[in-house]
């Protein structure tokens, strides 16, 4: 088995193709870093990994190792096959975006996962891409007893990872979340590494 390595610098995103049956690892290289993950079916513009459909399919609010994730057409798209992290991931929250940072009081431009997604897909010639709600690996948004949604730092240590297997030919986009206004990434956004496992 060989590995293709993709380095995603802090605050940036990357797109890569994954064939059906192929697996990839998402590695939190430096710890306490959220990785927003999107996946689009390769041969269409109308089907993608859907967190809201996956919540219904699994009957759960947060992803768990061993379970499959589905598209907006409810077809299996990714399977969560290994979790070498504290096991805390989010499946509830929209990607950060320019409007999110404006509401947080940022003046001027601030990098965002939404812009990272658009840029990565534009580089592949896919314009006007929808921005699905991502699965936010390593993101710690606990539901509090009164129903409130918490925002806590990612509990990951350097080198923690998750491994996913594609069930369809997909374009995956991973963004190293640039969030440095809330506690989400421990206040200091850092890099993410991808290992594409080829047999
Ligand atoms: Zn983000």
Task: Furnish the topology, listing elements before pairings.
Elements: E1 2-8, E2 13-18, E3 23-28, E4 35-41, H1 51-58, E5 68-70, E6 76-84, H2 98-103, H3 113-123, E7 135-137, E8 160-166, E9 170-176, E10 192-198
Antiparallel strand pairs: 1-10, 2-9, 3-8, 3-10, 4-7, 4-9, 5-6, 6-8
The protein binds zinc ion (ZN).
Q: How would you describe this structure to a colleague?
A:
The protein has about 200 residues and is of the alpha+beta class. The chain has one domain (about 1-140, about 150-199). It is about 15% helix and about 30% strand. The chain contains three helices and ten strands, in the order ββββαββααββββ. It has helices at about 50-60, 100-105, 115-125, and strands at about 1-10, 15-20, 25-30, 35-40, 70, 75-85, 135, 160-165, 170-175, 190-199. It has a six-stranded antiparallel sheet, with helices on one face. The protein has a four-stranded antiparallel sheet with strand order 2-9-4-7, with helices on one face. A hairpin with a 5-residue loop joins β5 and β6 (about 75-85). The radius of gyration is 16 Å and the shape is globular. The model has no long low-confidence stretch (mean pLDDT about 95). Zinc ion (ZN) binds next to loops.
């Amino acid at each position: 088995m060989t590995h293709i390595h993709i380095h995603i610098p802090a605050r940036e995103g990357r797109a890569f193709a994954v064939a059906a049956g192929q697996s990839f690892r998402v590695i939190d290289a430096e710890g306490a870093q959220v990785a927003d993950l999107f996946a689009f079916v390769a041969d269409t513009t109308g089907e993608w990994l859907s967190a809201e459909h996956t919540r219904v399919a699994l009957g759960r609010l947060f992803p768990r190792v061993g379970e499959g994730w589905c598209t907006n057409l409810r077809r299996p798209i990714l399977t969560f096959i290994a979790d070498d992290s504290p096991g805390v991931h989010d499946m509830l929250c929209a990607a950060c975006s320019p409007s999110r940072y404006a509401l947080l009081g940022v003046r001027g431009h601030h990098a965002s996962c939404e812009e990272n997604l658009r840029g990565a897909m534009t580089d592949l010639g896919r314009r006007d891409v929808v921005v699905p709600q991502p699965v936010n690996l390593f993101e710690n948004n606990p539901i509090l007893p009164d129903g409130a949604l918490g925002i806590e730092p990612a509990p990951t240590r350097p080198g923690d990872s998750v491994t996913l297997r594609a069930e369809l030919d997909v374009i995956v986009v991973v963004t190293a979340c640039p969030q440095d206004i809330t506690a989400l990434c421990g206040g200091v956004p850092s890099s993410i590494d991808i290992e594409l496992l080829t047999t």
